Amino acid sequence: MGWLWAIIVGFVLGLIAKAIIPGKQHSPLWLTTIFGMLGAVVGNSIARAAGVESTSGIDWSRHAFQLIAAIIIVALGDMLYMATLGKRKQRT
């Protein structure tokens, strides 16, 4: 069940990150989901290092760290995608 939640959270974080980043992102949905999953893992690590690993109620600060990490990873990942595979697809 852990993998299912990771995929769902990654999908949601990736979509929110894509919506926040200005302009059009060209990476496919499966790659955005992976970027969102990476953002969740990195955000959890940063939250743990900042001392807000778990709180009572909803962990808003942990979710904020996850979202910020997902935004950065989606933006960088999309740039890398366009620099490698995206240009080949645009030529055809």
Sequence of secondary-structure elements: HHH
Structure summary, number of beta strands = 0
Shape: elongated
Helix content: over 70%
Q: What percentage of amino acids are in beta strands?
A: under 5%
The unreliable regions are none
By DSSP (H or I, 4+ residues per run), the number of helices equals: 3
Main sheet specs: none
**Mean pLDDT metric:** 87
SS-based class: mainly alpha
Radius of gyration: 14 Å
State the distance separating the first and last CA atoms.
40 Å
Can you give a write-up of this model?
The radius of gyration is 14 Å and the shape is elongated. About 80% of the residues lie in helices and about 0% in strands. It has about 90 residues and is mostly helical. The mean pLDDT is about 85. The longest helix has about 30 residues, at about 60-90.
Task: Write a concise keyword list for the protein shown above.
3 helices, mainly alpha, 0% strand
Structure described in brief:
By secondary structure, the chain is mostly helical. It has helices at residues 2-20, 29-50, 60-91.
How do the strands and helices of this protein lay out in sequence?
Layout: H1 2-20, H2 29-50, H3 60-91
Helix pairs in contact: 1-2, 1-3, 2-3
